Amino acid sequence: MLNICAILILALCNEPLTYAQSLKSLVEKVETAESVSEKSKAYINLLNFCIYARNSDTEKYLELLKKEIKSSSSEIMEAVYNMESAYYEREVLGNYEKSFPKLIEASKVFKKYNVVDELAYSYSQIMLMTYWNRIGDTSNFNSSYLFKEYVLPSIDLIEQTKDSNVRITVLLNIGSYYSALANNTDSALLYYHEAEKNIHDSIFSYLKIVVYGSLAIVNSVIGDFDEMLKYVDKSEKVDLFHSDNYGKGNIYRSISKFYLAEGPQRNVDKSLYYAKEAMGCAYATKSNTYISLAYLRLYSTFKQMNIMDSALYYYEKHKKVEDIINREKFRLSLSQNEVIVKDIELKELSIEKLKAENYQNKLIRQTLLLSLIVGFIFTIWYYYNYKLIRNKNKLLEQKNKEIRSAYFDGKQEEQKRLASELHDNLNTKIAAMGWQLEAISKEKLNDRDKVILERVTQISRDLYNDVRLISHNIIPTELSSHGLEVAVQKLVNSLNSQDHLVFHFISNINKEISSNVNNEVYKILLELCNNVIKHSKASDAWISMISNEKQVTITVADNGVGATQDKTGEGIGLKSITSRVESLNGFIRVVPNNNPGYLTEVIMPI
């Protein structure tokens, strides 16, 4: 997949510029910029250009930016430095983990000062690292969180961006989110085509290649080979900087792979041609990573052409370069231990010698053939066992469903019995006690006894109402007769009888939910509403229920005082909710300080 982290280059004139002219113009922009806003945008464009082109002066410009920060004391400039140094560490040094926190901090500063272009670009970088490099805590930085925190805000920022290159970059990364994480090719094509509409505003050729390459890849996924060929052809016609061998190499490898795939477009001669072109670009970059990828592409092409001598030759080349890359990594991490490094080099030389002897052996083809046969037999054996295990798992799953259903039916019957006991037995006795108390003649009582009698009578009334409410909430009649939405709406109506707190209810249930999930959802909502009433000190609260084919999502939020992190687990009754959610293989997420208020989200399979 092409790297869609497009480089932001200002449109300095209507004619394409050479690499040297563009660099000179970008440096002049930095030197002549007067305001912080102009400086920040100028540095972003200059450093993005240098990092992408692997310019040797990149570190010099980063140091120059650090001096600007000291002289201006600007948080925005410091955030620009964090974002660009993160880009440098990621693209040049390959340090993804270290660069990710810098991007997050930079985006917070841009959001604080509402600098739209910088904020949109930082969100674009965060999206890119999340779904391509899988950076971030997977439990908290999941796809839904990414969509809410970065994708949706990026969509809102698109129309506000002044730089067309930023707009194109954001559109590309939103499209890639839908393609890579959401598996939604329709939405991906929508945003890619929108980027294509804006591409005429940009003179930077790499952006054009990314747009056309992304459209080509998505069309290949959906099986529209004519459209894919159209965009591959467009990408070939783009004029690139003479030094833009990184972009050209990516395109040529992708085209080579496309012509090698099974289908009406298959043409091994074209695949080989573009693989060799990619090899030439890789040599020009002098990057071991690109050279290794080019060797691997040639190996795959010759292997498909059944020219095994050439395939083995390029595979050996690929492995040698890969070993060099690994050796460099070891040298960086173990620079203080020369003995270990030399030992590793000796072992690698020994391995290379053994590989050379093996590749010279005439029996290599027989070994490969034997490996293919063994692999084929193993695949059949594995598939057979996989089917057996899958069938057994289906039987176990069915039995588990029957056990859960029986457990729920028994539990529901017991709840019905308990509700009936409370309502028909205990509440009847409480009502009778209230009648007896009301029958006592107050004329013979002194003032103090009258007050006591009135209090006891009121307590009996409250007790009657409480027991009646408890018996109703154990299994509300509306839940079994009219469904979850009606039962929750009646609960909300009941809660809104209070003056100090208003509950708002939104529901969109598109799929029938099983009775056991219905019952648990209702109990969870009762507990969450009870927490809001007792602890939030809020004036408004919101309940939402949304379902799709696979799950139901419940959200309860308020505008109250929130809670500290150390109190979220014990102080507001989440234990029983968590237990119910986990019993149905669900997931719960809590935001104790929701700017303002408290938010709880529960996702349960249906």
Average pLDDT metric? 77
Oligomer: single chain
What does the largest sheet look like? 5 strands, mixed
Low-pLDDT residue intervals, each spanning 5 or more residues = 1-16, 134-141, 332-341, 568-572
Please write the string of helix (H) and strand (E) elements: HHHHHHHHHHHHHHHHHHHHEHEEHEE
Strand order, largest beta sheet: 1-2-3-5-4
Q: Give me the count of strands.
A: 5
Overall geometry: extended
Helix content: over 70%
Q: Total helix count?
A: 22
Distance between the termini: 35 Å
The fraction of residues in strands falls at: 5-15%
**Helices and strands: which structural class?**
mainly alpha
Task: Compute the CA-based radius of gyration.
Answer: 33 Å
SSE diagram, text form:
Layout: H1 19-32, H2 36-52, H3 58-72, H4 75-93, H5 96-113, H6 116-133, H7 143-157, H8 164-180, H9 185-198, H10 205-221, H11 225-236, H12 245-260, H13 268-285, H14 288-304, H15 308-333, H16 338-360, H17 364-439, H18 447-474, H19 477-481, H20 484-495, E1 502-508, H21 515-536, E2 540-547, E3 551-558, H22 574-583, E4 587-591, E5 598-605
Parallel strand pairs: 1-2
Antiparallel strand pairs: 2-3, 3-5, 4-5
Helix pairs in contact: 1-2, 2-3, 2-4, 3-4, 4-5, 5-6, 6-7, 6-8, 7-8, 8-9, 8-10, 9-10, 10-11, 10-12, 12-13, 12-14, 13-14, 14-15, 15-16, 17-18, 20-21, 21-22
Would you mind describing this structure in some detail?
The chain has helices at 19-32, 36-52, 58-72, 75-93, 96-113, 116-133, 143-157, 164-180, 185-198, 205-221, 225-236, 245-260, 268-285, 288-304, 308-333, 338-360, 364-439, 447-474, 477-481, 484-495, 515-536, 574-583; strands spanning 502-508, 540-547, 551-558, 587-591, 598-605. With 606 residues, the chain is mainly α. It is extended, with a radius of gyration of 33 Å. Residues 1-16, 134-141, 332-341 and 568-572 have low confidence and may be disordered.
